[in-house]
Amino acid sequence: MNLPLSDLGIPSGDTVIKLSTLLPLAVVFAHLVPRSIPGPFLAKFSDIWLGWVSSLGHRSDVVHELHKKYGPLVRLAPNHVSVADPDTLQVVYAHGNGSLKSDFYDAFVSIQSVLEFEPIARSYMVQLFQQWDRLYDSALKGNSGDDGEGGWYGRDGMLWFDCLPLQVAVSHKDAMGSYGSEHECEVIHIPAVQILNRRGEYSASMGVLPPHWRPYARLLPWYRQGSEAVENLAGIAVAAVAKRLTTPTDRVDLLSKLQEGRDDEGRPMGKEELTAEALTQLIAGSDTTSNSSCAISYYIALHPRVQEKLQKELDEASGTEDDGVFTYEQVKRLPYLEAVINEGLRVHSTSSLGLPRVAPEGGLTIKGVHFPQGTVLSVPTYTIHRDTQAWGEDADQFRPERWFERDHAAMQKAFNPFSYGPRACVGRNLASMELLIIISSIFRRYHFVLAEPDKPLDTREGFLRKPLECRVGIKRRGI
């Protein structure tokens, strides 16, 4: 990937003007990190460089280029070092003596309880198929419409549309006003994809700034927009909790599992706690699965041979289900499907950032360098997913067959889609089940082609790496 000089730490004129609003706030930090660790010049003295790069939306790409230039150790801030080494995953993310996720989460993240969500996941797939079939039948007649992101149209016997997630509805102001009351909030449409993206970019760039800088950063126009996105996204969680408390249901979903949870003294969550957890699940659950599904679909459509091989395996595994949606039991052991999904998670890496961890008491020694207590360390998933020793010289390419050809232990050591250690993603079992059902059911029912097969998948990164556009054509398969 060719990156502008500003992304690599060489500011443009416009960048310098914008950075000048924060430079008076800059503080030269005490160097816990050895001065010999290479990196951008500004990163030696200030967190501004990392904050600015994060706001550009391509942090993982920039950090990856820096590792290619400097090697496995790169300074990202005065007290933050990125370590691009699969062996370091176990050192950085298995360490720490802070608070761990409690047993409370066992209520909804174990494999047994995850299976309770399968009927809901399959029912949503049925609804999706009904929608796509309706549009497909209309597209065959040459019709078009404005549903979804950018609308849809019929051409060459196919339905063409953008497979990014659709919009949801909520009014943050009215949701807050009805919070805990018996009155339903007014619902309005907001661009969910845009709100999620803006919120993630804002949080990722704000999170790397020192806390005492953040009130001043919020005065800048870009950060003000991000703050509004945070409020709108919070409104979705507030509205969901308010509706559930006023109109109880017996359906099994993440919110119902949160309501069943009890603390060590047997007390249920309060409204504020429920809302905070619902917001976390909204960001870390639906957003990550939708991004991954879109990216995996793109790569399958980009490689017709992979799609043909996958559909052959799916056809052989299919049963007599009337709704056309696979069960988890049918697809959980399909080797090529698993390889396709894993390869998509590797190449796209929805969570590409190196999540920061603080060196514990006594410090850590990594690749012969000692990092004292308090040093911030991270292992960039995007970069270790391209480690040629683990994945081969073609590590930049999407090729599911590598999962059958290369050393399995070496690949697993460098595979980090859900993070690692005691603070790894609590929803990984649910995400795995959803991806198996989604990808298998969609590609058994439809054949996909890309509208622009020569165009790379464009992404933008906040906390998560998100596809910006994925225009496809689909055709109902004769099954």
Detailed description of the structure:
The protein has 479 residues and is an alpha+beta fold. Among the domains are: 1-84 and 356-379, no CATH class; 103-162 and 288-351 and 389-415 and 425-479, Cytochrome P450 (Cytochrome p450), CATH 1.10.630.10. Helix content is 47%, strand content 11%. It has 21 helices and 15 strands. It has a five-stranded antiparallel β-sheet. It has a four-stranded mixed β-sheet with strand order 1-2-11-8, with helices on both faces. Helix 2 (48-56) runs antiparallel to helix 9, helix 8 packs across helix 11 (221-246) and helix 13 crosses helix 16. Residues 4-11, 15-30, 97-112 and 166-182 have low confidence and may be disordered.
Number-wise, the strands total 15
Q: Which fold does the CATH topology of the domain at 103-162 and 288-351 and 389-415 and 425-479 refer to?
A: Cytochrome p450
So what's the oligomer here? single chain
Report the top-level CATH class of the domain at 103-162 and 288-351 and 389-415 and 425-479.
Mainly Alpha
Overall mean pLDDT stands at: 78
Report the helical percentage: 40-55%
| Low-pLDDT residue intervals, each spanning 5 or more residues | 4-11, 15-30, 97-112, 166-182
Strand count, sense and closure of the main sheet? 5 strands, antiparallel
**Which class of secondary structure composition applies to the elements?**
alpha+beta
CATH architecture of the domain at 103-162 and 288-351 and 389-415 and 425-479: Orthogonal Bundle
Secondary structure tally, helices: 21
Q: Spell out the CATH superfamily of the domain at 103-162 and 288-351 and 389-415 and 425-479.
A: Cytochrome P450
- Spatially, the strands of the biggest sheet line up as 3-4-5-15-12
In terms of DSSP E residues, the strand content is 5-15%
The N- to C-terminal Cα distance equals 40 Å
